[in-house]
Design goal:
Largest sheet: 2 strands, antiparallel
Strand content: under 5%
Structural class: mainly alpha
Bound molecules: heme C
Mean pLDDT: 90
Distance between the termini: 102 Å
Low-confidence stretches: none
Helix content: 25-40%
Radius of gyration: 26 Å
Number of strands: 2
Number of helices: 18
Length: about 400
């Protein structure tokens, strides 16, 4: 008896183990609520907060697809991102490449699929903004540009989108016509176009409920924006608790590890008398990176400019005549030209804002000094326009001469 057992010991162990593994896998795939053990690698910073919701992206539930194409379609991405990409008139929408005239561009890169450039769970090939193609990929389609555009002839392809000149999707603040309109502006605008101050009508609710859904019953606009950003994105899922600093990938205060990111994180009944609580002091309770810590020594703070954390990260927006505080805290964060257009240029000239935003050290110091570099984009657009001639060329030439005369 013991002899037979000995003889079959190894196969038996193997059988038990693989049976166990199969049962475990079956359990993971079909039964377990938590499927994170099946993740093939680290999820991007973009989606780490919701990675456990596999079905949000893996909409095709066929088992074999989990190992091959992973069953992730454009529709899944569009369910959450389509509206925003459309809002800023995407320069390279999928639609553009469905046009047979542009089929030639797809030979080297499949621009019809979001996951060509935005793969997941693969930290080795992933850069900023969940981009998983090498940064010189513009070359696949725009090799002619470097040869034909005078100002671009000495440039390398990996600078197109890394130097604050172009983005793949959102180019609203980088289009030549926009740059030309703002040529020659000085550091501070003479007539800043600040959004009008909103009358503060006190909330009839005592804020005693900790449930964000309770607040949303009267403030659905704030809630639906909140769910689109890094603060509220988990609340888009019934099963997920609000985000807490202990789950964050950026530096946070230990004392706030378990502070729930819901409406009351910034609107607390006991802080109603602090006018800066929601827009600034609440932020300090959790955030602890260099940029945050430097804010109180920056001119925006020390010179009483009225700029708070929320001025930049949760700006007031005019939506069809209604002034709304945008509760999507990452709507204008990356690429940061979004913020140039909807925040900085309320007060500063475009050139100054671009110079500031392309300086990594100023981002870190929270804009504690004037920028030293000069972004060449506006000047290039101006030179090209003057060379081509026409009405606007005259205006630009005059501004250029006035600036050189100074
Ligand atoms: C935010 C969207 C998103 C979420 C959430 C998500 N994934 Fe993925 N996953 C992707 C994308 C995108 C790919 C890459 C597809 C490709 O490149 O073919 C992928 C690929 C995979 C792959 C295949 C890797 C390979 O080498 O082909 C596995 C396995 C996987 N995911 C498992 C999971 C599991 C398990 C979960 C939940 C715990 C999950 N994913 C959650 C987007 C997501
Ligand atoms: C050919 C490459 C490529 C393809 C295809 C692509 N993207 Fe992007 N995407 C990028 C790059 C590069 C960035 C970084 C910012 C930029 O350059 O616009 C980016 C940034 C983003 C951002 C964040 C920044 C922003 O402006 O909102 C979102 C969201 C996004 N992509 C969604 C999508 C979706 C959804 C699809 C499919 C419909 C898609 N992308 C297809 C290259 C691509
Ligand atoms: C359930 C909703 C949801 C789905 C599905 C989803 N995303 Fe996202 N995505 C978000 C949220 C929320 C953020 C974080 C907010 C932000 O950074 O603006 C984000 C961030 C991003 C970013 C980075 C933006 C940045 O600022 O760094 C990119 C790129 C992106 N998503 C592309 C995709 C692609 C491609 C897919 C499909 C594979 C996809 N997303 C699926 C909700 C979603
Ligand atoms: C898959 C091919 C493809 C890739 C990759 C690609 N483009 Fe384009 N791009 C096009 C096509 C096609 C057009 C439209 C050309 C036209 O209408 O004349 C275009 C238009 C543009 C325009 C001008 C029009 C506009 O709407 O803003 C700029 C600027 C631009 N691309 C920059 C870039 C940069 C920078 C990159 C890399 C970050 C890039 N493109 C990557 C194919 C591509
Ligand atoms: C019964 C409906 C109702 C509920 C529930 C409610 N509010 Fe309000 N709230 C209002 C109204 C009405 C105003 C005044 C008009 C306006 O600004 O929209 C207001 C104003 C506000 C303001 C701006 C004025 C101020 O006092 O700072 C904030 C912030 C606010 N509410 C937050 C919340 C939060 C957080 C919750 C949940 C804890 C909540 N509200 C629940 C109806 C409600
Ligand atoms: C209750 C704690 C808490 C408070 C209060 C808070 N935050 Fe956050 N914040 C977070 C957490 C957690 C994240 C998600 C970080 C992550 O996903 O790694 C975050 C993300 C962010 C991001 C996005 C960072 C990135 O790299 O994508 C910005 C910007 C931000 N917060 C600004 C603010 C501002 C401005 C305030 C005040 C108006 C504020 N926060 C108040 C906890 C907080
Ligand atoms: C990260 C901080 C933060 C969080 C979290 C937050 N708010 Fe706000 N909220 C602000 C700031 C800043 C303002 C504008 C200045 C002020 O009221 O002090 C504001 C203003 C408001 C207003 C009045 C202005 C408007 O938008 O019309 C309402 C209503 C409001 N918030 C509701 C909510 C609700 C509902 C939630 C949860 C879904 C929420 N807030 C979560 C920071 C926050
Ligand atoms: C004048 C505008 C401005 C002010 C004021 C400001 N920020 Fe920022 N913040 C930015 C810009 C721009 C970025 C960088 C975006 C990028 O990645 O290019 C940023 C980045 C961040 C990030 C992300 C850091 C990371 O490591 O990913 C956090 C968190 C943040 N800010 C919080 C705050 C807080 C909290 C305050 C107030 C104490 C504040 N900010 C004040 C403009 C501002
Ligand atoms: C509400 C108006 C306002 C907004 C919005 C604003 N600023 Fe400022 N900023 C000021 C004022 C006022 C000063 C102080 C100027 C001075 O005293 O010379 C200043 C100072 C600065 C400085 C330091 C200049 C120096 O000489 O030390 C930088 C850099 C800067 N801002 C960049 C930005 C950027 C980038 C943005 C957008 C992300 C922005 N600001 C948004 C009003 C604003």
């Amino acid at each position: 008896m013991t002899k037979t057992l000995k003889r079959y010991r190894l196969p038996l162990i193997w059988l038990l183990l693989s049976g166990g593994l199969a049962a475990y896998l079956y359990y993971l795939f079909y039964e377990a609520a938590d499927k994170t053990a099946l993740l093939p690698g680290r999820t991007t910073d973009a989606h780490h907060q919701i990675e456990m919701e596999c079905a949000a992206c893996h909409t095709d539930e066929k088992l074999e697809n989990v190992f091959t194409s992973a069953g992730v379609t454009n529709e899944a991405c569009n369910a959450c991102h389509k509206e925003d990409l459309a809002n800023f008139s995407d320069s390279h929408p999928v639609r553009k490449f469905k046009n047979p005239e542009n089929a030639v561009f797809l030979q080297h890169i499949d621009a019809l699929n979001c996951i060509t450039c935005h793969s997941e769970h693969n930290a080795k090939i992933t850069g900023k903004m969940a981009v998983s193609v090498p940064s010189d990929y513009c070359a696949h389609c725009h090799d002619v540009t470097l040869r034909t555009v005078e100002s671009h002839k000495d440039l390398a392809f990996d600078t197109c989108s890394t130097a604050g000149c172009h983005n793949y999707h959102d180019n609203i603040s980088l289009e030549p016509s926009y740059l030309l309109r703002h040529f020659g502006e000085s550091k501070m605008l003479l007539d800043p176009h600040l959004p009008p101050a909103k009358d503060k009508v006190p909330c009839p609710d005592p804020w005693s409920s900790t449930s964000s859904q309770h607040c949303a019953s009267c403030h659905d606009t704030e809630m639906s924006d909140f769910k689109k950003g890094k603060h509220g994105m988990r609340l888009a899922f019934k099963n997920l608790s609000p985000m807490t600093p202990d789950k964050a990938r950026i530096p946070m205060k230990n004392s706030a590890s378990h502070a729930a990111m819901d409406c009351r994180a910034c609107h607390q009944p006991e802080k109603k008398t602090d006018p800066l609580f929601a827009s600034q002091n609440a932020c300090y309770q959790c955030h602890d990176d260099e940029h945050t810590r430097n804010f109180q020594s920056s001119p925006h703070f020390t010179r009483n400019t009225g700029v708070t954390c929320a001025t930049c990260h949760m700006p007031a927006e005019d939506r069809e005549g209604q002034l709304v505080i945008n509760h999507d805290n990452t709507a204008n964060l990356r690429p940061n030209e979004k913020m140039i257009k909807n925040v900085c240029t309320d007060c500063h000239g475009l050139q100054f804002a671009m110079d500031s935003m392309t300086s990594p050290s100023l981002l870190k110091s929270n804009f504690s000094s004037a920028p030293t570099g000069t972004h060449p984009g506006i000047k290039w657009a101006v030179d090209a326009k003057i060379k081509r001639g026409g009405d606007d060329a005259k205006r630009l030439q005059e501004i250029l001469e006035a600036l050189q005369g100074n």
